[in-house]
UniProtKB/TrEMBL annotation, chains A, B:
<dbReference type="InterPro" id="IPR004499">
    <property type="entry name" value="Pro-tRNA-ligase_IIa_arc-type"/>
</dbReference>
<dbReference type="GO" id="GO:0005737">
    <property type="term" value="C:cytoplasm"/>
</dbReference>
<dbReference type="InterPro" id="IPR033721">
    <property type="entry name" value="ProRS_core_arch_euk"/>
</dbReference>
<feature type="compositionally biased region" description="Basic and acidic residues">
    <location>
        <begin position="1"/>
        <end position="16"/>
    </location>
</feature>
<keyword id="KW-0030">Aminoacyl-tRNA synthetase</keyword>
<dbReference type="InterPro" id="IPR017449">
    <property type="entry name" value="Pro-tRNA_synth_II"/>
</dbReference>
<dbReference type="InterPro" id="IPR004154">
    <property type="entry name" value="Anticodon-bd"/>
</dbReference>
<keyword id="KW-0067">ATP-binding</keyword>
<dbReference type="GO" id="GO:0005524">
    <property type="term" value="F:ATP binding"/>
</dbReference>
<dbReference type="GO" id="GO:0006433">
    <property type="term" value="P:prolyl-tRNA aminoacylation"/>
</dbReference>
<dbReference type="Pfam" id="PF00587">
    <property type="entry name" value="tRNA-synt_2b"/>
</dbReference>
<dbReference type="Pfam" id="PF09180">
    <property type="entry name" value="ProRS-C_1"/>
</dbReference>
<dbReference type="InterPro" id="IPR002316">
    <property type="entry name" value="Pro-tRNA-ligase_IIa"/>
</dbReference>
<dbReference type="InterPro" id="IPR006195">
    <property type="entry name" value="aa-tRNA-synth_II"/>
</dbReference>
<keyword id="KW-0547">Nucleotide-binding</keyword>
<protein>
    <recommendedName>
        <fullName>proline--tRNA ligase</fullName>
        <ecNumber>6.1.1.15</ecNumber>
    </recommendedName>
</protein>
<feature type="compositionally biased region" description="Low complexity">
    <location>
        <begin position="17"/>
        <end position="27"/>
    </location>
</feature>
Length: 536, 536
């Protein structure tokens, strides 16, 4: 039996740490392994276990609020770093506007506030004194920012104005919370821009949407469908909303991943963002707003994770390579440990995030489980026999593939290539899984049965709000599949439109209607193939 | 008259933009120039004018909350970038804990909460419904984080635990707010660390304090006095507080610039942060917490600004060099504009933040004022005659010094050197101003008269809390100088201890007591020379 095989046997047998760790001592062996439950058997518990055991999230004594531990927060930092540098290239500047908003400002745009008001948290007291006027915690910052925009934008020369902020917002929802996906406080960036023409605003809406897609596809390896929200689903008070929509294969749910809104001139009218145009007359500004949240992390966990725990794409993994020296009783472990450190140093110099786990109070099997649970893309093992051959063993987290006898002399190249391979493989796998579960239908009769195969539906649709209402209502009535909701994920059986996909998409082909195509629901003339699904 | 002199004449004459700018059209010429009032004549109005006209700050419809515009926020980003990378070298990881805290958690440590409770903002409603239990907005996060620390820290192997977060906090003060310095919401980082020994905690307290000092001295060019807070002034609930204290020469006020606290075992006792030590017994963790806020920016503005507006140290200036092409009627401006762009490109390649102001709707004089108001360290002028000599003119914002005939061929070297010179000169000037205004006294009779020369006082002191109470009370009674308060800066005439300075300091010599030295107030045996002052 090879060194590695011996260790794997140990890994399977019993993964108790040698040290008496209070945290785990009381738990059974089964609970200690990976996610504790199979992803396909109890997705809800699987998710909770994975994000807590991997030390991404901890629970908190206020419902709907969670602690983002360093293992999760450092992923957010990577997303921030990418997106922030990209928007700065577009001339966007960061700023900070207050957390609190007055009732007057909040109520300025009626459609907007009616979309948010049930979820607004109100501060009414400081110390023991009541405030003269209660103030709200921002659910989003249109109403916080736009009174200032009205002051700052006087001339066409003050345009475009492009500001962004990385902040926390609070939406006091009463739906059952899901860490990362639906939380009462979350972190996001919100960009708020103003232009002198609709054309410029339109261009930016799509530039930002493309950046959002890149965050998901390039960093998180999660494929997106780009499209337009329907009237029913667009941002409250805006003109139109573009969106990227993700897919969770395990339960067949769609999930809104990020949105980029053109607000048109609705807000500029209400907030009086009027300027002197180049011809000396008065014009209202055209505005956009766009946001990306910590939801990103939850979607990535749900898409890639497996029964052993997290599977992190290399581009956002806090640790990309963990090196585990294999030590044996009665064998001097010094050469192996030194070799591990030397390799680590070499990889670090190439910008690879590497960690040597040379804790002497845990056996290698425990360590294998530990780093698999945390989703580290590559595990490197080095034992005395490997070292004798000037080689190491490499194991990929995403597919479990092991490669033996990797020469230490070419280790940097091998690791770099393997990280690239993993990144690409994760995206490709997710694309395949998603595309197998996006089904084109033409008749209403197929709708709920198709959803019940954990699929999304692409169907020709009339684009009439009342028809969408009917789809939601009827699909809810026809749906029997509410098992997920009972497990605590709060998903109704009803389906809604996710988006009207743009025809030109990477990774997926969107069918086009002809003049004869009818709406799958009401039979009227169809406008576009539209993506429907049960969703978060 | 040289080109430059002509422009300067224009600059002095009338600085109206050519364009009809609504923002400024109604203001008189005087108001338009620089800060509008002299720094020494009305410091309060000067400060307000400088931070608003330079577009650092805008006012907001909730009292005590301000908008940080890009010109200010980008300075905060530079401070973040420096400090964040330094603490990561110390093994600190970033995380995010919730904004809201339950009443139960908030009240766990009695001394702590009594220090904060009058300022706590309470959320009592969401939408139209009252919350079952009100929740507080964090004034600081000890009580938010430490219940989790109790869960996470089980074994000595879990220590040290070093977390930090960059967040907003709310303290609903009723003292008159001052943008950056005293605001109801502010941005900060708060580090919270736990160790198995007091020795390790002590070491970190001072490491962090040194980093805070470097933020002020190396980035912001503002000198600090490092020291220990007295019992009266230390952090509520902590063991001891170290501090760096700044000085505002214009009004002679001290200002607490940042603090690094050793919390001892008070919080670990109250929150039950107990772990199994290496010997198998139980121990309480030793804890620190430390914070640096956006106050940094306000202190820098007050120290360096002048009658023309902001003066920004090069290391934090959003724009380090502004290039202004000098164009003249009937002269083709193309060569000058092209030369400006070419120089800009060359400087950018060396990492210098450069901007070419080639707006054609403003004259050079207006532009000079504009960029002086915004504090850009170097102005570079290039006109046809300069270009004919392959040279430019450089003007330093800090001292107004102009250098003519700087060869374009060596421009990168000249600019780099000049930026370094400005950075060093600003710190040296601030050190001199401060040191001239820190006066050593030995008798109470000198105390208030010395304060009244806009100075701080170094005096031998007994380090007894009751004596400090007496100093505060008596100095308040004896003080006549409440002029600043009436101007809206909310400074009382009373003085308090700022810190007990460490003996070993850069830039300032702290006298040492002998066995015979008596407390300047009560005549008891003196413990240490202590820094007193009126303060923010």
């Amino acid at each position: 039996m090879s060194e590695t095989n011996k260790v794997e046997k140990k890994q399977k047998e019993a993964k108790q740490p040698k040290a008496n760790n209070n945290n785990t001592a009381s738990k059974s062996k089964t609970e200690l392994l990976g996610a504790g439950v199979k992803k396909e058997e109890d997705f809800s518990e699987w998710y909770t276990n994975v994000i807590t055991r991997s030390e991404m999230i901890d629970y908190y004594d206020i419902s709907g609020c969670y602690i983002l531990r360093p293992w999760a927060f450092s992923i957010w930092e990577k997303i921030q770093s990418f997106f922030d540098s990209e928007i700065k290239k577009l001339g966007v500047q960061n700023a900070y506007f207050p957390l609190l908003v007055s009732e007057k400002a909040l109520n300025t745009e009626k459609d907007h506030i009616s979309g948010f008001s049930p979820e607004v948290a109100w501060v009414t007291r400081s110390g023991d004194s009541n405030l003269a006027e209660p103030v709200a915690i921002r659910p989003t910052s249109e109403t916080v920012m736009y009174p200032s925009y009205a002051k700052w934008i006087r001339s066409h020369r003050d345009l475009p104005l492009k500001l962004n902020q990385w902040v926390n917002v609070v939406r006091w929802e009463f739906k059952r919370p899901v860490p990362f996906l639906r939380t009462r406080e979350f972190l996001w960036q919100e960009g708020h821009t103003a232009f002198s023409s609709k054309e410029e605003a339109d261009v930016e809406v799509y530039q930002i949407l493309e950046l959002y897609k890149r965050v998901y596809e390039e960093l998180l390896a999660v494929p997106m469908v780009k499209g337009m929200k329907t009237e029913n689903e667009k941002f409250a008070g805006g003109l139109y909303t573009t969106t990227i929509e993700g897919f969770i294969p395990t339960n067949g749910r769609g999930i809104q991943a990020a949105t980029s809104h053109c607000l048109g001139q609705n807000f500029s009218k209400m907030f009086n963002i009027e300027y002197e145009n180049a011809e000396g007359g008065k014009s209202l500004a055209w505005q956009n707003s766009w946001g990306l949240t910590t939801r990103t992390i939850g979607v990535m966990v749900m898409v890639h994770g497996d029964d052993k725990g997290l599977v992190l794409p290399p581009k956002i993994a806090p640790i990309q390579v963990v090196i585990i020296p294999l030590t044996f009783k009665d064998v001097d472990s010094t050469p192996v440990r030194e070799a591990a450190q030397k390799i680590a140093k070499q990889l670090k110099e190439q910008g690879i995030a590497v960690h040597v786990d040379d804790r002497d109070n845990y056996n290698p099997g425990f360590k294998f489980n530990h780093w698999e649970l945390k989703g580290v893309p590559i595990r490197m093992e080095i034992g005395p026999k490997d070292l004798a051959k000037d080689a190491v063993v490499i194991c990929r987290r995403d597919n479990g593939e092991k490669k033996f006898d990797i020469p230490i002399s070419t280790i940097t190249t091998t690791v770099t290539q393997t990280l690239d391979d993993i990144q690409a493989a994760l995206l490709q796998k997710a694309v395949n899984e998603r595309n197998n579960k996006i089904k084109t239908i033409k008749e209403w009769a197929e709708f709920v049965p198709t959803l019940n195969t954990n699929s999304l539906v692409l169907a020709p649709w009339c684009n009439v709000p009342a028809c969408e209402d009917a789809i939601k209502k009827t699909s809810g009535e026809e749906s029997k599949n509410v098992a997920e909701e009972e497990k605590g994920f709060c998903l109704t059986g009803a389906a809604k439109s996710l988006c009207i996909p743009f025809v030109d998409q990477e990774h997926i082909k969107i069918p086009q209607i002809t003049e004869e195509t009818k709406c799958f629901k009401c039979g009227a003339h169809a406008q576009k193939y539209t993506l429907f699904g049960r969703s978060y």
